[in-house]
């Protein structure tokens, strides 16, 4: 039997998940020491409870997906609204270098998936599904490419398989990023006075770096901010429909982010209107937390338990590959410093799951060790915008040349 939760009850459940996660992280030292994000801690408990109910009673729960999508779009719009051109220029060489690192990782991730699938006697396309299609691409890319692989390449159950792999990645991405970055910080003794100086000098508009910080906003600023978000989401919905089936078709969240960038800089440079960054920051963090809570509430762990042994081998190998690449390549190439460690946590987040998971990973680190303005500048733009374009092109090439 299936129980459907309306918008209001879904929001209530999400709020409870966040409160439980906050309580668990506060009370359990292990979660604090390994920097597990609060939405992940509470969400996994909720998913385990739902799984137990399903196994013992046969009941399953469906939560409102429109609400989840809406908060996800709010989060990505907040990234765009926070990214003025001065910040993009500030990202500069670091942003380009990080994009190159992630591009190489896509090749590695797909090579591992395809190679193991072939060695285990599976269709190589299944290895691609357990590669960047689902792990770096997430649930949206999994659904879109699953349909293509089922209809055009005869991969039966590609959509279900993709959703299960993306679910696995979402959970793992939120679990390995914090511990990995903590290990790097401890091993290389990166918690030095420079971090304290960075904390003291962090800019007030350093969005997402410290979600616990009190944000002083007014009613007028909140209303203006809501109008900006509404404009971004409306633009995203229009462009998604307008670009469907064209060469510039992109996921809705990319249009929301891009619309935010255009709107922010148009208002700044053409109309001299200053966007209220603290309000953008507040709404963005709320969107991030609620999105992750609903995403983890919606996990169907019985789908993961039904994965075949060979596929689990591939996914576990991908987890190990992600951890090794982030620590041996991402960390070293990006400077082998505190910023590089935080970037590595973010890479684990969207390399296995999604950009919101990456932000949550980085927040868990910066809450303990101090802000990393560079990381919060680079990861959202690369993870939510540029890399989706690169990933789509690479997936197309792999699909074309695989037998």
Briefly, what is this?
The protein has one domain (67-287, 301-401). The chain has 17 helices and two strands. It has helices at residues 7-27, 29-33, 38-57, 65-82, 85-119, 124-133, 138-153, 158-187, 193-201, 219-243, 252-269, 277-297, 301-305, 309-333, 338-352, 355-369, 373-401, and strands at 2-4, 60-62.
What keyword list fits this structure?
two-stranded parallel ribbon, mainly alpha, sodium transport, symport, transmembrane helix, sodium, amino-acid transport, 403 residues
Q: What does the model show?
A:
With 403 residues, this protein is an all-alpha fold. It has one domain (67-287, 301-401). The chain is 79% helix and 1% strand. Strands 1-2 form a two-stranded parallel ribbon. Helix 5 (85-119) packs antiparallel against helix 14 and helix 6 (124-133) runs antiparallel to helix 17 (373-401). The longest helix is centred in the first third of the chain and has 35 residues, at 85-119. Mean pLDDT is 82; it is low at 198-202.
What structural class is derived from the secondary structure elements?
Answer: mainly alpha
Q: Could you state the order of secondary-structure elements as H and E?
A: EHHHEHHHHHHHHHHHHHH
Query: What is the makeup of the main sheet?
Result: 2 strands, parallel
The number of helical segments is 17
Strand content: under 5%
| Order of neighbouring strands in the sheet with most strands | 1-2
Tell how many strands the DSSP assignment holds.
2
Q: Using only CA atoms, what is the Rg?
A: 20 Å
Low-confidence stretches: 198-202
Q: In angstroms, what separates the terminal alpha carbons?
A: 41 Å
The dominant shape is: globular
Summed over residues and divided by their number, the pLDDT gives a mean of 82
How many domains make up the 3D coordinates?
1
Percentage of residues in helical conformation: over 70%
């Amino acid at each position: 039997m299936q129980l459907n939760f309306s918008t209001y009850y879904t929001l209530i459940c999400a709020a409870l998940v966040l409160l439980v996660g906050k309580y668990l992280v506060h009370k359990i030292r292990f979660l604090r020491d390994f920097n597990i994000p609060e939405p992940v801690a509470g969400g996994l408990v909720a998913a385990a409870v739902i799984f137990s109910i399903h196994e013992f009673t046969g009941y399953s729960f469906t939560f409102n997906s429109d609400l989840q999508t809406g908060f996800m779009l709010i989060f990505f719009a907040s990234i765009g609204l926070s990214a003025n051109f001065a910040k993009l220029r500030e990202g500069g060489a670091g942003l380009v270098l990080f994009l190159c690192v992630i591009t190489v990782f896509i090749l590695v991730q797909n090579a591992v998936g395809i190679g193991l699938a072939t060695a285990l006697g599976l269709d190589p396309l299944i290895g691609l599904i357990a590669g960047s299609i689902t792990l770096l691409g997430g649930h949206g890319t999994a659904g879109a490419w699953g349909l293509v692989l089922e209809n055009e390449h005869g991969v039966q159950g590609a959509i279900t398989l993709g959703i299960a792999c993306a679910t696995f990645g979402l959970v793992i991405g939120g679990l390995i990023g914090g511990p990995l970055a903590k290990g790097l910080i401890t091993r290389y003794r990166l918690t030095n006075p420079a971090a304290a100086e960075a904390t003291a000098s962090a800019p007030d508009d350093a969005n997402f770096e410290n979600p616990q910080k009190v944000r002083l906003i007014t009613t007028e600023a909140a209303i203006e901010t809501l109008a900006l978000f509404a404009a971004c989401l409306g633009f995203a919905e229009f462009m998604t429909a307008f670009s469907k089936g064209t060469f510039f078709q992109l996921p809705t969240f990319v249009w929301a982010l891009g619309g935010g960038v255009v709107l922010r800089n148009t208002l700044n440079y053409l109309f001299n209107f200053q966007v209220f960054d603290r309000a953008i920051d507040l709404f963005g963090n709320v969107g991030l937390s609620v999105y992750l809570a609903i995403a983890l509430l919606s996990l169907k762990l019985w789908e993961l338990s039904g994965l075949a042994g060979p596929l689990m081998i591939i996914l576990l190998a991908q987890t190990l590959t992600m951890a090794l690449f982030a620590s041996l390549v991402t960390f070293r190439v990006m400077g082998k410093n505190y910023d590089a460690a935080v970037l590595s946590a973010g890479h684990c987040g969207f390399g296995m799951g999604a950009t919101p998971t990456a932000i949550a990973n980085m927040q868990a680190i910066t809450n303990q060790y101090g802000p990393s303005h560079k990381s919060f500048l680079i990861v959202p733009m690369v993870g939510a915008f540029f890399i989706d374009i690169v990933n789509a092109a690479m997936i197309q090439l792999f699909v074309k040349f695989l037998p």
